[in-house]
Design goal:
The complex is a heterodimer of chains A (581) and B (418). Chain A has 581 residues and is of the alpha+beta class. Chain A is built from 11 helices and 6 strands. A 6-stranded mixed β-sheet of chain A has the order 2-3-1-4-5-6, sandwiched between helices. In chain A, helix 1 packs antiparallel against helix 2. In chain B, helix 3 links the parallel strand 1 and strand 2. Classes of the chains: A alpha+beta (581), B alpha/beta (418). Chains A and B meet through helix 1, helix 5 and helix 6 of A and helix 4, strand 11 and helix 18 of B.
């Protein structure tokens, strides 16, 4: 099997043009063939019209022949007869021309016409014989016989006495013969049939007279017989002349005219048939011309389609590998390395380009592999650094937390508190926000430690730290262990009421812990709370002062009986207290 | 030409050569040889053979076209002993002194010959047709002319005769009713234009056309059997117009040609002789031989004695004439549709159903077989025009050579070439 896709590009292009060229040649050949048949049809039409012309010519010739025959019959001129022979000869050769290479139909018509022409000729031969015979009879025979008869009669008369009855009979004979001669000529001129009867009765009369001559004296029987014979000869010649005339008249007017008529009829039919055939051919030619048009059109269309398909296929077979190569190169240039490099193997010319691409591809792959190796290395390094950093951060966080929180309770230590206090104080001052500070101290903690041990004390402290953790949900609120059993709470952006509420909540929550403390008047662990709030009219000038006021308020709360909240008032410390009573 | 036809008819004769055959026969036999010139109607080979056998003489038949036969006979009486043709030839032959009178006393069956040729009437009530009715040509008058007065001398032996009309294809024109719708006028019906043929003989075809033109009211004649020149002119003026309009396919000169014209489909209606119609019907072509309401064109067959015959042959000629009326030949031609002048003698040679069909005009009881052995009529078929008597009671005109005969010849040519 032929696989053009494996051919060299130049062969493919060559083959494509060859196919288109062959198709073009084929189409031209087909059109040429059709044109040739059209031409042969035209030839046929021209042959047919020649035949029609021949037929028409033949018709004209037959009419001419008929006229010549009539002329001949009428004037008896041999010129007409000769002319007629020439025309017949001509007509015969035309008929054979008509027959040569003609269709069966034309041949049979021509054969028919030939038969009729032959009949015509035969009749003409007969006419010529009859007419010549009649001519001789009329020109010589009748006159000679009449003269012979007249001479005999004159001889008779010369031997007879004048005024005798026989002389009168002789005179009658002369007159009758003369009259008969005239009647014959009259008949030949007029062709009046009635004259024949008259001729016959004249002759009968003459013969009667002649027969009566030998009766009586003066006429020898031999002479009478001679006269009678002369008369009989005359009669015979006259009647023959009439019959010859009738004969050729019949031949010319009936027999030959009928043959002429038949030839004319056949020629007309032939012309009709040929014309019909010509119109058939004409229709066929029209069909063929349409065929040529259709062939040319479809052929061109086919060639166009083939050109389109071939140019598309060839173009693609050139362009596709190039495009693919270009794409491959582009990708290779971009540093991609397709796992499978699809390279056009077919095209020989592009094969080299492909192998170049393959080299490029190979190099790229090597680079790629190198890159991958480097990336792997750097990733490993990075991971290791990250790990170290994380460890360091953990240590830092631990350190930070250790430096900021109270080791026992986990809340902020005093140092961190002071750090935050300074920051919050600055922020409150800058933004004119309120800032509350709560000082909280566990009542009778020394006796508790003494009674229940330091470990229980520490445990209490942890419990209280958890209460703070629960009660203070706001993110900026800060609880710190101020020292011993004393806690400080910094509440940014918090007014008196809020601060009091929170303080009270804290006091209640601690009481609600229900930690037994027999050394307390309430038999449980309680706390005293002092609250101070920095605001616009608070008169507090420093963070230290705020803490001090809170501490003073705590003192007041202690002083006022413990387990209560005291709010430091503006100017006078310890103006207000709250407790559970 | 005639001899060639004869030899062709006898088949094997061809091998013997054209010229040799008759002279050899003559040399071998001392018997007299009778030369009969005439037409194909009666010069048939079976008749010749039968006559030779019955009479013990040699007989030569020279059948030909009517024109050449007549010309030959009229100008050369020495070329024949007997001349057989139609009554319209008689005047020409008689005027040419080509024939001599026949003595009725030497005719065995003279008294059996019926009234038709003797008086022109088949029955007392019948009209005498126009033109040359046979009785007007039969008797040789004392002054040498032909007339109707019996004289014991006759110009011809009356024997075969028939009524002619035209044949037409019933599948093309539709079947007409005899003597009622069938009309000579159909020949000039423009509906049949181009499909009409006429017999090419002025003394016959002229009457077909004259009857047709008269039937269509195009012309009228004082006496259709004796037209004047101006009547002929009028008739031909009409006919030439029709010819130019393409009415006629052609003009036939022989019976076979007329058969061909119809058999090949060129012609639907034409002048016709009885055997042509029979032959066409035998071929399965539905050709009807019309019985025109205007009457038939009739003809009488004439057998004439040459004026140049010698005595020995004259005896043979009389014997042949008597043989013709002896029954068998009449029966033979009856099967072709022709009638014989003494029918009763032929009756014995016909089957009753044949007689009833051909002469009686009765429906065929059996399939009728023609002289050539082919069927010519199916059971139940009736001869168109009826019985012998009915047909001859309806004669419009006889074939005639009129006084204007020569004139009609030239007019005929004008028609043919129009």
């Amino acid at each position: 099997m032929i696989r053009p896709s494996r051919w060299r590009l130049k062969y493919r292009i060559f083959a494509g043009f060859l196919i288109v060229g062959l198709l073009g040649v084929g189409m031209a050949f087909a059109i040429g063939l059709l044109a040739n048949t059209i031409y042969s049809d035209f030839r046929q039409v021209s042959v047919f019209s020649q035949r029609v012309e021949l037929g028409r010519d033949l018709s004209a010739k037959m009419i001419y022949l008929q006229r010549l025959s009539e002329e001949f019959v009428h004037y008896g001129k041999s010129f007409s007869a000769r002319q007629a022979r020439l025309v017949m000869e001509d007509a015969r050769s035309q008929l054979s021309e008509l027959q040569s290479g003609a269709s069966v139909n034309v041949r049979s018509r021509a054969a028919e016409m030939t038969v009729h022409l032959e009949e015509f000729e035969k009749a003409f031969d007969e006419v010529e014989r009859q007419r010549n015979r009649q001519n001789r009879l009329v020109e010589e025979g009748i006159r000679n016989h009449a003269a012979e008869h007249d001479e005999l009669v004159r001889k008779l008369v010369s031997g007879l006495p004048d005024q005798s009855a026989k002389a009168a009979d002789a005179e009658k004979l002369l007159n009758l013969v003369l009259l008969t001669e005239r009647l014959v000529h009259q008949y030949l001129d007029t062709l009046d049939n009635a004259l024949i009867g008259e001729i016959r009765s004249n002759l009968r009369l003459a013969r009667g007279i002649a027969n009566g001559l030998d009766k009586g004296d003066g006429v020898s029987p031999a002479f009478a017989e001679e006269l009678s014979r002369a008369l009989s000869d005359f009669q015979k010649i006259v009647l023959e002349a009439i019959q010859r005339t009738r004969g050729y008249l019949y031949l010319v007017n009936v027999v030959m005219a009928a043959e002429t008529n038949e030839v004319l009829y056949q020629a007309n039919r032939l012309a009709d048939e040929l014309r019909a055939e010509m119109s058939v051919i004409e229709a066929r030619v029209a069909d063929k011309i349409r065929d040529v048009y259709v062939t040319a059109f479809t052929g061109s269309l086919l060639i166009l389609v083939v050109i389109l398909v071939l140019s598309w296929r060839i173009g693609r077979s050139i362009a596709a590998p190039i495009e693919s190569l270009a794409k491959t190169f582009r990708r290779l240039a971009q540093g991609e390395s397709p796992t499978s490099l699809k390279l056009p193997s077919a095209s020989h010319e592009l094969g080299e380009l492909s192998s170049a691409a393959a080299v490029f591809h190979e190099k790229n792959r090597e680079t790629e592999q190198l890159l991958v190796k480097y990336r792997d290395l750097s990733e490993e390094l990075e991971a290791r650094v990250k790990e170290r950093t994380k460890e360091l951060e953990g240590a830092n966080f631990k350190l930070q937390r250790l430096s900021r929180t109270d080791g026992l309770t986990g809340v902020a230590n005093r140092r961190y508190f002071e750090e935050i206090l300074e920051r919050e104080w600055a922020a409150a001052r800058r933004h004119e926000l309120s800032l509350a500070a709560i000082m909280l101290d566990i009542d009778y903690f020394k006796p508790f430690n003494d009674m229940y041990g330091h470990q229980a004390g520490d445990h209490c402290l942890k419990q209280i730290a958890r209460v703070f953790d629960k009660s203070l949900r706001r993110g900026n609120d800060l609880v710190a262990r101020y020292g011993g059993e004393e806690f400080v709470i910094l509440l940014p952006d918090t007014h008196h009421e809020q601060a009091l509420e929170i303080a009270e909540l804290l006091r209640e929550s601690i009481a609600e812990l229900e930690v037994q403390h027999e050394g307390s008047p309430w038999q449980k662990l309680t706390a005293s709370v002092g609250v101070a709030v920095y605001g616009a009219a608070s008169g507090i000038d420093s963070a230290f002062e705020l803490i001090e006021r809170a501490d003073r308020a705590l003192y007041q709360a202690k002083h006022r009986g413990r387990n209560q909240v005291y709010l430091a008032t503006y100017g006078e410390p310890g103006d207000r207290t709250t407790d559970m009573a | 030409m005639e001899r060639r036809n004869l030899l062709k008819a006898s088949g094997a004769g061809l091998l013997l050569g054209q010229a040799g055959f008759p002279s050899i026969v003559r040399a071998l036999n001392r018997k007299p040889t009778l030369r009969v010139v005439g037409t194909h109607v009666t010069l048939q080979e079976p008749i010749r053979q039968r006559a030779e056998r019955d009479l013990g003489i040699n007989i030569e038949f020279y059948p030909g076209g009517s024109a050449e036969v007549l010309l030959k006979a009229a100008t050369d009486p020495g070329a024949f002993d007997l001349y057989e043709q139609w009554s319209n030839s008689i005047r020409v032959l008689w005027q040419a002194n080509a024939i001599q009178s026949i003595d009725t006393r030497k005719l065995t069956y003279w008294n059996e010959i019926n009234e038709l040729p003797k008086s022109g009437r088949i029955s007392p009530q019948a009209d005498i047709g126009h033109g040359d009715a046979p009785h007007q040509l039969l008797h040789v008058q004392p002054n040498g002319t032909l007339g109707s007065k019996p004289s014991g001398q006759i110009s011809f032996l009356p024997y075969v005769h028939n009524t002619d009309s035209f044949g037409y294809l019933s599948n093309k024109l539709g079947e007409g009713i005899p003597y009622d719708t069938e009309s000579w006028g159909w020949l000039l019906d423009p509906g049949n234009a181009g499909r009409v043929a006429i017999v090419n003989a002025p003394s016959i075809g002229l009457f077909d056309l004259a009857l047709a033109a008269r039937a269509r009211g195009l012309v009228s004649f004082k006496d259709i059997g004796q037209m004047t020149r101006s009547e002929v002119d009028q008739l031909f003026d009409v006919l030439i117009d029709y010819k130019r309009a393409g009415q006629f396919r052609g003009f036939w000169t022989s019976v076979p040609q007329s058969v061909d014209m119809m058999a090949t489909g060129e012609v639907d209606i034409q002048s016709m002789f009885s055997p042509a119609a029979s032959r066409l019907r035998g071929m399965g072509i539905p050709c009807l031989f019309a019985a025109p309401k205007e009457g038939y064109r009739a003809w009488y067959g004439v057998m004439c004695l040459s004026s140049a015959i010698d005595n020995e042959r004259k005896e043979a000629a009389y014997a042949f004439m008597n043989w013709w009326l002896s029954g068998w030949p009449g029966a033979f031609v009856a099967r072709q549709g022709y009638y014989i002048s003494n029918p009763q003698r032929s009756r014995r040679f016909l089957e009753p159903h044949e007689w009833d069909f051909w002469y009686g005009g009765k429906p065929a009881e059996k399939i009728l077989v023609g002289a050539d052995g082919r069927p010519v009529a199916q059971v139940g078929e009736i001869r168109r025009g009826g019985s012998y008597q009915e047909r001859f009671e309806n004669v419009a005109v006889w074939n005639t050579v009129m006084d204007t005969y020569e004139y009609t010849l030239t007019k005929w040519k004008d028609l043919l070439l129009a």
